Amino acid sequence: MFEELIEAWDGEAVVTHYERASGTWMFICLHSMRGGAAGGGTRMKVYPTPADGLRDAMRLSEAMSLKLAVARGPNGGGKAVLAVPSIPEGAERRALLLAYGDLVESLHGAFRTAPDMNTDDRDMDVIAERTRHVYGRSDAAGGAGTTGPDTAVGVFHGIRAAVAHAFGNDDLHGRRVVIQGAGGVGGALAPLLAEAGADVAIADVDAGRAEDVARRIGGAVVAAEAVLREPCDVFAPCAVGGVLDEYTIPTLRCRIVAGAANNQLSTDADADRLAAAGILYAPDFVINAGGVLHVVGLEMEGWSRARLDDELAGIGRTLGDIFQSADRGGVSTLQAAVDLAREREREAPRATPSAG
Ligand code: NAD
């Protein structure tokens, strides 16, 4: 099974390690070594089989290459998956992260990592005990801290750009936005939208989380299982990947899909399905680049907060260009975004800071 996946993949290298003590499969996928390294988060998750973990790491690392290219990041894309038998806590978690830190260090900087699903800044602090090729450490440890709030700012700019393209102006007053997922990104996006005048509704499988956010902003709660069918101007998927496919797209009742979740489309053909349904899709790897800009900008490039804010606003400008070029070329917004990534990949990569 691993052989078939690796043979079919267009990335540069896959590192696999089985960590016997915890029964964890570790996969590091180096999709592109542009600029001398591949960068991407470390996801910790329970998968049905180890091959499912490898497949996830491969697909996510491809998306990272596109994301970093569009965002003019210093490196190519990568991703690590820790396919655990169950999510560990305490000493067991620490031991696993240290073993993983050793694996990252053994690559001598070919892979640079940061938080992803089920890993956070404190986990990065532990990994940093074994390797310096780790970003997104806690504020207390001198890192850039959590990325969710800046990812939300980028998504907010992206939603404005999509609203401007679909409706002729970016005014959010009276626009209904339904957010799927009240976590680090969704929970930070909701107040930004509410402050800008949008009518916000939010759903989470953890209903208490959605209720907390709704209470804070004076918004509404939508049942998690009904969120795709909820009538709105903007549907913002900020929970899990793969929510849009040939079965769910016909049930959507929105004009725009614009949210943070990675790999929202089950397949690339879903971008054409959305376009055919008259739904404007903000490609995920463009609109959710705020977290990458936060980490790369603050920890690698030494940006000021003002520079970072401008780069986050740039996500909206880039999306506006993508929407226009999709219209001009008669292609999906996904295709227009991939074309932009390829164009930017051909440009000279930025110098890589030696501290990286
Ligand atoms: P998180 O784990 O903090 O929050 C996700 C929330 O979604 C949780 O509250 C969870 O209960 C909820 N959820 C899970 N399945 C759901 C479902 N089917 N319906 C409704 N709610 C559901 O994650 P996050 O950091 O907020 O990230 C959200 C998404 O954005 C993820 O797909 C992540 O990969 C992506 N993303 C995050 C960042 C970042 O900086 N945090 C950057 C880029 C992309």
Describe how the helices and strands are arranged.
Layout: H1 2-8, E1 13-19, E2 24-30, E3 38-45, H2 50-70, E4 76-83, H3 90-105, E5 111-115, H4 121-127, H5 148-167, E6 176-180, H6 186-195, E7 199-203, H7 207-217, E8 220-221, E9 234-237, E10 256-257, H8 269-276, E11 280-281, H9 284-287, H10 290-300, H11 305-329, H12 333-346
Parallel strand pairs: 3-4, 3-5, 6-7, 6-9, 7-8, 9-10, 10-11
Antiparallel strand pairs: 1-2, 2-4
Helix pairs in contact: 2-12, 3-4, 5-6, 5-10, 5-11, 6-7, 10-11, 11-12
The structure holds nicotinamide-adenine-dinucleotide.
Nicotinamide-adenine-dinucleotide binds next to helix 5.
If you had to describe this structure to a student in words, what would you say it looks like?
The protein is an alpha/beta fold and 356 residues long. It contains twelve helices and eleven strands. β1 and β2 (24-30) form a beta hairpin. α5 (148-167) runs parallel beside α11 (305-329), α10 runs antiparallel to α11 and α11 (305-329) packs across α12. The structure holds nicotinamide-adenine-dinucleotide. Residues 117, 147-148, 151, 180-186, 203-206, 209, 224, 238-241, 260-262, 288, 291 line the site of nicotinamide-adenine-dinucleotide.
Task: Give the overall shape, derived from the CA principal axes.
Answer: globular
Q: Which CATH architecture of the largest domain is right?
A: 3-Layer(aba) Sandwich
Q: What would CATH call the class of the largest domain? A: Alpha Beta
Determine the mean pLDDT: 95
Q: H/E element string?
A: HEEEHEHEHHEHEHEEEHEHHHH
- Stretches where pLDDT is under 50 for at least 5 consecutive residues are 350-356
Q: Quickly count the helices.
A: 12
Q: Could you give the count of β-strands?
A: 11
User: What value does the Rg take, in angstroms?
Assistant: 19 Å
